[in-house]
């Protein structure tokens, strides 16, 4: 098997993530779904997007599962898991996945493929302005990550 091929179990898990995305869409939410699988193939948790129905713009399934893993698993146990998700995690979710020490993410649609399926974003977007006050900000952070 080449690195680009998937096992039958991986295909089954990824198809479940797509089913969860379909459920989200049917409920009026954006169509995204994810599940977290342990090293032994056990589904540990699964979720779908609830940003509209839950009134929370951060209620992405990848973020919810990363938060669950950070609460419920040791870093060593989290490192043995695989998240299967219907779409490549956004930046917010990718950061949470990294910080919760998940071992691997397998996704169906890439961010580029998703962008081709969506209309262009409305509005001007967020304007970032910085960095500023380096010495003061540095003092708050210096030494924390040692």
UniProtKB/TrEMBL annotation:
It comes from the Bacteria. InterPro entries: CMP_dCMP_dom, Cytidine_deaminase-like. One of its GO terms (molecular function) is tRNA-specific adenosine-34 deaminase activity. Its EC number is 3.5.4.33. Gene3D superfamilies: Cytidine Deaminase, domain 2. Pfam families: dCMP_cyt_deam_1. Residues 8-125 form the CMP/dCMP-type deaminase domain. This is Nucleoside deaminase.
